[in-house]
Amino acid sequence: MNTKKIIVVMTVALAASAAFAASKKGVRAMAGNEDGPVTSGKEAKILVDQMPKTGQQCCLTAPSIQGASMVGQCYTKPRKWIVIETKYTTYAKFLDQLTFNWHVMLETKSAKENKGNKMGLAPYSYFNTTVTYFNIPQGSHAACVCLPPSYLELYGEPKAIGFTISNQNGDILGGGTVSEVKGIKSDTQFWEDQNIMNASGPDGKPMVERRQGLVDRSKTIWALVNPNDYEATMQ
């Protein structure tokens, strides 16, 4: 092999090596090293530290500021909100985004303002919403959704709560379920079980009614409580 051919071969080899190195750097940036935020891979690991509470444990009286309204108090008796919260830990320096998909089942017979189910509601009310957080730094965080007092008073306490955590690619990174409802086991995705969601009672009427109203805490008075525990959400 003459000198000219050797130079050509070495040039091609160096170019290929540089291209491979560049591609590896790009993969590392996507995986979440110091060159960029995490999108997927093992560095995107999520650990759920504390599951939501069910029943009365997540029914809380909202904080209030006396004298902050020209109208004054309409209710002299304290009213409770449903505040559903989980705590989780992230391990990457930064995560681009995380989406929490919440599933909540309220039990009608526990509704104190609807004793005996005078309104003839289904035994259970199901609520679903998603909340997306952005630019999540490494460390401990909280995620929370709420239902206003009227939902607790009319539809009852939350007896089954489940959620999944996913990245922007739709990969499930974590989640779980807690339940007091007979037939709904913990750590199962009850919202995907049609035998549960489409069940009928002895009278042939649906056992579960799908409803709207579950919202991220940032849209409620609870946004003022421990705001540093929560990351920015999509508005």
Description of the structure:
The chain has three helices and nine strands; from the N terminus they run αββββαββαβββ. With 235 residues, the protein is an alpha+beta fold. Strands 1, 2, 3, 4, 5, 6, 7, 8 and 9 form a nine-stranded mixed sheet that branches. It folds into two domains: 1-31; 44-233, no CATH class.
Labels describing this entry:
235 residues, alpha+beta, nine-stranded mixed β-sheet
Strands, helices and their partners?
Elements: H1 3-31, E1 46-50, E2 59-61, E3 80-107, E4 124-147, H2 149-155, E5 157-166, E6 172-179, H3 194-197, E7 208-211, E8 215-216, E9 232-233
Parallel strand pairs: 4-7
Antiparallel strand pairs: 1-3, 2-3, 3-4, 3-5, 4-8, 4-9, 5-6
| Unreliable segments of 5+ consecutive residues | 1-35
> Could you say which overall geometry the principal axes of the C-alpha atoms support?
flat
Structural class: alpha+beta
H/I helix tally? 3
Sketch the major β-sheet: 9 strands, mixed
User: Would you count the extended β strands for me?
Assistant: 9
Count of discrete domains: 2
Report the portion of residues in β strands. Answer: 35-45%
User: Rg to the nearest angstrom?
Assistant: 25 Å
Mean pLDDT across the residues is 82
Q: How far apart are the first and last residues' alpha carbons, in Å? A: 66 Å
Order of helices and strands: HEEEEHEEHEEE
Helix content percent band:
10-25%
